[in-house]
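Hi support team,

I submitted a single chain yesterday and got back a structure, but I'm not sure I'm reading the token output correctly. Could someone confirm the output below corresponds to the sequence I sent? I've pasted both exactly as they appear in my results page.

Thanks,
R.
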Amino acid sequence: MKNDEKHREQPEPQLPAIRQQAELVPIRIPEEHQRFYDKLRAKIEAFIRERGVNDAVSSYVLLAPDLFVLLARLLVDKRVPTSSKTIVGLAVAYFLSPIDFIPELIVGPLGLIDDVVLAVYALNKILIDVDPIILQEHWNGEENLLEVITKVIKSANELIEKKVLNRIKKILSEKK
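Hi R., thanks for writing in. Yes, this is the structure output for that exact sequence:
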């Protein structure tokens, strides 16, 4: 019994502090923005149904609203460095511009595919300076953002022409 008491009296060794994993805080879109987001997504979905766009391509086109919202949020996040905001701003401007490599005015929502590819390449580039947790905090998409980035980059050659992809890479390589 004395051995048991001695054993109990000895202080337990101090273990190193383990930081608990930070929980992601979901960010809710204000109602007026949500309505715009829902309308845009519904418009894209209707186009896909009407035109019979295959599932592989449509899954990429449907990323456009989520990527646009993510980019817009990153622009106003104080934790994102100015150099990264420049790249994000370029991607937002490309989304908004009626003149791009695959114009939506001519081909409809399928024209968003180059916007999606450019946005993903921009996000991939800023991951050097921006903690992925910050990107995840602002992401409303259903899939894991880092997996989306990887999937789009791997599929970019099949989604858009090689010369368009090379132009996108060149645009982004000139920034920063």
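A quick pointer for reading it: The radius of gyration is 22 Å. Let us know if anything else looks off.

Best,
Support desk
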